[in-house]
Design a protein that fits this description.
Layout (H helix, E strand, L loop, with lengths): L5 H7 L9 H11 L2 E4 L5 H11 E3 L11 E3 L19 E4 L11 E8 L3 E2 L2 E5 H11 L1 H7 L5 E3 L5 E3 L2 E5 L2 E4 L7 E3 L7 H10 L1 E4 L6 E5 L3 E5 L2 E2 L3 E9 L9 E2 L22
Antiparallel strand pairs: 1-14, 2-17, 3-17, 4-15, 5-14, 5-17, 6-16, 7-13, 7-15, 8-9, 8-12, 10-11, 11-18
Helix pairs in contact: 4-5, 4-6
The structure holds fe (ii) ion (FE2).
């Protein structure tokens, strides 16, 4: 399988949000690839302005009143289930809002300040994971598509298939693998194969300050390596704005090739559940 460097992932998905007809161009790229990278978003106002062009920005638990969430180590969220994003800890690949009845379709994350060490963004193309599993473990794909395959969140949680079929041959992904993820007993035997497939398709995306990614949260999983120092990122979540249309889910087929990353592999780690 051909490989590409982490910088190639950024370069290959780069779009300039200042150019005309940005919504149409980004809409097309999100439909085809599910991922857009951008540069030149140094200030919070720029991030918020772009987010509002692209999506109906959702306010939520951790966001500021304008809907943006400042992702940083608050020093108060270590070891709190569901709050790892606000610590300096590693985040395993996940869907944002996996415990919500309907997770946001889009996520924009812009790095405002790089960490002193670590803190690389890591992305996993759910289409690549699906194709990989379908080739090697078609029975796993079948079980992961069951309505109650996963149970995500606190308390009674939210049941969801990991691979849902929103219509036709299209697929959408919902997954988390932290302490707030539980799985149907029929799924458990297939979790090692799922984790291994995710590891094979991890792409490190080491952003500089002012660089950002926009992803289809129903296709790409996102993660982060542990970090030291004052890493700060702005994040916006929401559904596509008028003029930016996305079909339900994504088509399966030839996905972005896997690559070795500098991010540590998760297989065999003690933190998976
Ligand atoms: Fe997240």
């Amino acid at each position: 399988m051909p490989n590409s460097s982490p910088s190639a992932l950024f370069r290959d998905h780069l779009a300039d949000p200042r150019r005309p007809a940005v919504r149409a161009r980004i809409s097309a790229q999100l439909t085809e690839q599910g991922l857009v990278t951008m540069d030149g978003l140094e200030r919070r106002e720029q991030v918020l302005g772009l987010a509002r062009v692209l999506m109906k920005v959702n306010r939520h638990r951790d966001s500021d009143p304008d809907g943006l969430t400042v992702i940083r180590d608050t020093g108060r969220h270590q070891d709190r289930p569901g709050f790892a994003g606000l610590s300096s800890a590693e985040l395993f690949p996940h869907t944002e809002g996996s415990a919500l009845p309907v997770p946001p379709r889009l996520m924009l994350l812009a790095l405002a300040r790089a960490a002193d060490s670590g803190g690389a963004c890591v992305l996993v193309d759910g289409r690549a994971v699906y194709d990989d599993l379908l080739a090697g473990h078609p029975d796993a794909v079948e079980v992961l598509a069951e309505d109650r395959a996963g149970l995500f969140g606190t308390g009674s949680g939210t049941f969801s298939p990991v691979f849902a079929h929103p219509g036709g041959e299209r697929i959408q992904v919902r997954l988390r693998l932290d302490e707030l993820a539980r799985f149907h007993p029929r799924v458990e035997p297939y979790l090692p194969a799922l984790r291994a497939a995710i590891d094979r398709h991890r792409h490190a995306l080491p952003l500089r300050a002012g660089q950002a990614y926009l992803l289809d949260n129903y296709r790409w999983l996102h993660a982060r390596t542990a970090f030291g120092g004052g890493r700060v990122a702005y994040r916006a979540l929401g559904d596509p704005q008028v003029g930016l249309t996305l079909p339900a889910g994504f088509s399966v087929g030839s996905a972005l090739a896997a690559e070795p990353t500098e991010a540590p592999a998760l297989v065999g780690g003690g933190a998976w559940r």
